[in-house]
Amino acid sequence: MKKLVLFIIAYTGVFNTVNANNSDKLITLCLKNVMQERKCGYMDATANVVIKPQFDIAKSVSKNGLAPVKHNGKYGYLNDKSEWVIKPQFDNASVFAKNGLAKAQRNGKYGYINAKGEWVIEPQFYSAWNFANNGLAAVAPYNGKYGYINATGEWIIQPQFNNAMDFADNGLAVVFWNNGKYGFINAEGEWVIQPQFDDALDFADNGLAAVRHNGKYGFINAKGEWIIQPQFNKVWHRFSNNGLVAVQYNGKYGFINTKGEWIIQPQFDSALNFYDENLAAVTKNGQNAYINEKGNFVAKVIKAPCGAEQLVKPDGTPIYPNKPTDELCK
């Protein structure tokens, strides 16, 4: 999911790849080139670069194999051969949902497209979320309130919330109510967990959601009961599929399990959750890196004197670009 050379490629061409198999298992990788331009591509779970960094932004690969990337200021979609399936034309774009639709923005408004790049729901919303597995998407028209639509653009839950997120697989969605608090509703728009939290994130597949109470984050179940008491300064979204989540404690990030136990002790300046491929992006002592579930470094990002960045193995062996670090600035 997820350098040094600035690539100039025609839209109809094939982008620079190494081995683009299993593209839905890729991790975004972004590095600065010698011109200090941040370019993004993709690597696999062993930190082998699959699609060389050459895009302004590279988002997660959709389950249908299409990846939304930003190139020359516009978003389009690549297939598993790194060919343009939908040419760059959108101001913003997201991954495709289970129903085959993806959120896209044009001229400041959001709508939804299919895998051919055709508008299924015309751009008309000032804010929008991806479609959830239950077929509903949170959107806000220009009256400022959020509600939920189906795949034909019909309102299922009328606009009434100050903010809203997509539905989790347990059938609950986070919404921000008029009392300035967050709670959870079901697909009928009924309150299941009353608005009472200062902040809330959506439920993970393990049935836990991060919420903030009295300035600290903890985790609740679908009944609103505390499973992990509030104690963390920050939480990076929800639990990953490996049962770990990045949390900040006393100014440092680490990873806990569903019992609230430290699996990787807090030691990082910043941390993102684990990808499905069980790598997590972290920063320690100002250095970006990737770790595995044991907290061991799999790859690190180092900087040359000119500011160009390079992905290397923990022992310093170059991965990409595959050249001595002292040659990056030439």
Percentage of β-strand residues: over 45%
In CATH, what is the class of the domain at 93-197? Mainly Beta
* Morphology call: globular
CATH fold annotation of the domain at 93-197: Lipocalin
- Are there runs of 5+ residues with pLDDT below 50, and where? 1-15, 17-23
Given helix and strand content, the structural type is mainly beta
Distance between the termini: 28 Å
Number of DSSP-assigned strands: 33
By CATH, the architecture of the domain at 93-197 is named Beta Barrel
* Averaged pLDDT: 92
Helix content: under 10%
Q: Biggest β-sheet: count, sense, barrel? A: 6 strands, antiparallel
Structure description:
With 330 residues, this protein is an all-beta fold. Among the domains are: 1-90, no CATH class; 93-197, Lipocalin. The chain has strands at residues 27-32, 38-43, 49-55, 57-58, 67-71, 74-78, 84-90, 92-96, 102-106, 109-113, 119-125, 127-128, 137-140, 146-149, 155-161, 163-164, 173-176, 182-185, 191-197, 199-200, 209-213, 216-220, 226-232, 234-235, 245-249, 252-256, 262-268, 270-271, 280-284, 287-291, 297-303, 309-312, 318-320. It has a 6-stranded antiparallel beta sheet with strand order 28-29-30-31-32-33, with no helix packed on it. β6 (74-78) and β7 form a beta hairpin. The two termini are 28 Å apart. Residues 1-15 and 17-23 have low confidence and may be disordered.
Would you spell out the secondary-structure blueprint of this structure?
Elements: E1 27-32, E2 38-43, E3 49-55, E4 57-58, E5 67-71, E6 74-78, E7 84-90, E8 92-96, E9 102-106, E10 109-113, E11 119-125, E12 127-128, E13 137-140, E14 146-149, E15 155-161, E16 163-164, E17 173-176, E18 182-185, E19 191-197, E20 199-200, E21 209-213, E22 216-220, E23 226-232, E24 234-235, E25 245-249, E26 252-256, E27 262-268, E28 270-271, E29 280-284, E30 287-291, E31 297-303, E32 309-312, E33 318-320
Antiparallel strand pairs: 1-2, 2-3, 4-5, 5-6, 6-7, 8-9, 9-10, 10-11, 12-13, 13-14, 14-15, 16-17, 17-18, 18-19, 20-21, 21-22, 22-23, 24-25, 25-26, 26-27, 28-29, 29-30, 30-31, 31-32, 32-33
